[in-house]
Amino acid sequence: MRIARRHLIAGGAAAALAGTLGAGGRTAAAAPRTPLTFMLDWFPNPDHVPLYAALGAGYFTQAGLNVNLEVPANADDPLKLVAARKVDVAVNYESGVIFARAQGLPVRSIGLVVSQPLTTVMFLKSSGIRRPRDLAGRRVGFAVSGLEEALIDQILRSDGVSKANVTLVNVGFDIVPALLSRKIDAVVGAYRNVERIQIEMQGQAVGMFAPERYGVPPFYELVLIAGDAAIAARRDVLARFVRAAGRGLALTAAHPDEAFKHYVRLNPKLDDTFNRRSFEATLPAYARSQHQLRERWAAFSGWMAAQKVIPSAVPADQLYTNLAP
User: Fold this and answer.
1) Smallest Cα–Cα separation from 182: which of 106, 247, 126, 119?
2) Buried b / exposed e along 247-269 (16+ C-beta atoms within 10 A)
3) Is the dihedral of CA 228, 233, 235, 241 positive or negative?
4) Domains, the chain, with CATH or none
5) How many CA atoms lie within 13 A of 246 on its CB side?
6) Which end of the chain is more exposed for a tag (fewer CB within 10 A), N or C?
7) In the beta sheet, which residues pair with residue 38?
8) What's the pLDDT tens digit per position in 123-182?
9) Model-level pTM?
10) Model confidence over 286-322: pLDDT tens digits?
11) Which residues contact 66 (CB under 8 A, 6 or more apart)?
12) What is the CA radius of gyration of the chain?
């Protein structure tokens, strides 16, 4: 079960993207480059700044790659298209990889983008909620059944209650309006770098319960995925891609203003206050290395199985490969 992203910040981004990729190609070196199709997990947003930094700084070109960056029409497309070898690399989620593998899809992570959880249980501080047990008797919104219900149950049980003590309300992706209108008292699945910023820009103070502080194993929020067959056939090409993405991450950590300039140059309509604040909130969570930890994959897979989100734990060696540690 993947954690659905809810970025409502990309108006016109898909159209802008098509033009910028062409511009990137025109400035490339004349030497032949290896084609590679790369798909985002959703519309361009601040999670992707290091990838646009790598694109804008020419790191993919320097790695001998001709990267065709695509935006999915549906958030479920990246996993399916990678498994079918119609896309070489895509952005996805640790939970998504585990869930896909549990269903028999031959995909795995080959690199990292955001190495820390971003999802939370979120509430307005004016609600009087201070600790998980304060949610007892209240309405908790969610958008995606399965994993989000497991997350709220774990967080509640860490403080002596369970999801049986709350009323779960499916609010779809209307998280911010549902919280601000008091339709719900809290929501599971809101992101500390997205909905928190949106609510604060409305003048409200936000409280959050980070799942990794309440018994949920830390997980990689965003990873780079490829199919097993593609890894076997194009290992060197994919490794070059991951190394170039790692250079984009390093540039973002060392020179965040420069990285953000690449992002907005390639997505001019996203040069606004929200995107800047969201990027600043995401900075501490970007991956600092492309080395994935076996114990992290094993722990989260085991936790998902214990919560019955998947039938049984998927072995860690089926979930990731370190192509460019």
Assistant:
1) 126
2) bbbbbbeeebeebbbbbbebbee
3) negative
4) 13-117+219-318 (3.40.190.10), 119-213 (3.40.190.10)
5) 18
6) C
7) 69, 89
8) 999 999 999 999 999 999 998 778 999 999 999 999 999 999 999 999 987 889 999 999
9) 0.90
10) 999 999 999 999 999 999 999 999 999 999 999 999 9
11) 25, 28, 33, 34, 35, 36, 60
12) 19
- Which residues on neighbouring strands pair with residue 187, listed in sequence order? 122, 141
The CA-CA-CA angle for residues 42, 303, 169, to 5°, reads 60
Cα separation of 67 and 291, whole Å? Answer: 23
Q: What is the pLDDT of residue 172?
A: 84
Q: Which of 119, 311, 317, 105 is nearest to 212 (CA)?
A: 119
Q: What is the pLDDT of residues 170-185, one digit of tens each?
A: 998 788 999 999 999 9
Q: How many CB atoms lie within 10 A of CB 108?
A: 23
The residue assigned the tokens 């990267």 is 67
Q: Is 180 helix (H, G, I), strand (E, B) or coil?
A: helix
Which conformational region is residue 172 in: left (phi greater than 0), alpha (psi within -120 to 50 degrees), or beta? left
| Phi/psi at 214 (5° precision) | -130, 35
